[in-house]
Write a structure and sequence with these properties.
With about 350 residues, this protein is of the alpha/beta class. The protein folds into two domains: about 5-130 and about 330-345, Rossmann fold; about 135-325, Dihydrodipicolinate Reductase, domain 2 (2-Layer Sandwich), CATH 3.30.360. Helix content is about 30%, strand content about 25%. Strands 5-2-1-6-7-8 form a six-stranded parallel β-sheet, sandwiched between helices. Helix 8 links the parallel strand 12 (about 280) and strand 13. Helix 4 (about 130-150) packs across helix 9.
């Protein structure tokens, strides 16, 4: 990338957990920024955020906020993206959207840089970030898909409460304190705030993320099904998911069973994973070395371990996949796409 090339960047949803991570990544990675514009709701306008030692005043996000903006990184909820993303494109910005608003739009590429960055290069102004759980799974499965092909994926997720926002983090911490103090825990947020029934998350596991669809799977589970097919560009891959919220603050974990199209050598599988971009193989069970959410927190990579043959299916393979849901699952994937677009321009 040429040293003199700099860009005007807007972060929409700058006060949210993912927006804050985006800002930190832009600073840590020395993203070539000419001007940074931080956009949020009207109630946050006027507050300041420090970026590279300077105080930047938050502005209310409006249709006219994007004049002169080159990259608009959205993470303020699907309704905001639907309202404002096209205005950003109208002003000439490339939108990288972290919500579900455009993921399944056939005209919008759904991108994980390690998997299908080529799709991003054909964008029409908007690029979608996949669901956090989908991102880490397809990143780990990409080298196996390319080498052997995939018939079927069965995934069970163990998802951190940060995926449901700061209110869910607060509820986990509050409930934990209350239970330890012998008090009755208050349940107001999980599994879904807008639903009438809420369950305790502290010392518990809730097998519901998002609301249920008519087929008995939740929308979160169906996101993994449909997004995986779109990212791989392959509707023949059979995907089934069960998504569970657990009392962990950061880091999603997944148990993934995959049936490959071809016979495989386990040593080759591990070598492919070890050498894959963005993947860290942590697979020494004899030493009790395997991916942990606590180790993945704050890291940009996807961690894979517990790689082993299925006991019954000759082409079946099991693995354990862990990643920081706010970083690779959201903020880093967004910034990474922008970085790769810049590289492709030069």
């Amino acid at each position: 990338m040429a040293n003199q090339l700099t860009f005007n960047v807007a972060v929409v949803g700058a006060t949210g957990a993912v927006g804050q991570q985006m800002i930190q990544l832009l600073e840590k990675r020395n993203f070539p920024i000419k001007q940074l514009k931080l956009l949020a709701s009207g109630r946050s306008a006027g507050k300041t955020v420090t970026f590279k030692g300077q105080e930047i005043v938050l502005e209310e996000a409006t249709p006219d906020s994007f004049a002169g903006v080159d990259f608009a990184l959205f993470s303020a909820g699907g309704s905001v993206s639907k309202e404002l993303a096209h205005h950003a494109v109208r002003h000439g910005a490339v939108v990288i959207d972290n919500t579900s608003a455009f993921r399944m739009d056939p005209d919008v590429p759904l991108v994980v840089p390690e998997v299908n960055m080529d799709a991003a290069l054909a964008h029409n102004g908007i690029i979608a970030n996949p669901n956090c759980s989908t991102i880490q799974m397809v990143a780990a499965l990409k080298p196996l898909y390319d080498r052997f092909g995939i018939d079927r994926i069965i995934v069970s997720t163990y998802q951190a409460v940060s995926g449901a926002g700061q209110s869910a983090i607060n509820e986990l911490l509050d409930q934990s304190r209350d239970i330890l103090d012998g008090k009755e825990p208050q349940c107001n947020v999980l599994p879904v705030g807008k639903l009438p029934v809420h369950h305790q998350i502290a010392y518990n596991a809730i097998p519901q993320i998002d609301v249920f669809t008519d087929n008995g799977f939740t929308y979160e589970e169906m996101k993994m099904v449909n997004e995986t097919k779109k990212i791989f560009g392959d509707d023949t891959v059979l995907v089934s998911a069960t998504c569970v919220r657990i009392p962990v603050v950061y880091g999603h974990s997944e148990s993934v069973y995959v049936e490959l199209k071809q016979d495989y050598d386990l040593a080759e599988v591990k070598a492919l994973l070890k050498n894959a971009p963005g993947i860290v193989l942590v697979d020494a069970p004899e030493e009790q070395q395997y991916p942990l959410a606590t180790d993945a927190t704050g890291k940009l990579e996807v961690f894979v371990g517990r790689v082993r043959r299925d006991l019954h299916h000759p082409r079946g393979l099991h693995m354990w996949i862990v990643s920081d849901n706010l970083l690779k699952g959201a903020a880093w994937n967004t910034v990474q796409i922008a970085e790769e677009l810049i590289k492709a321009r030069v």
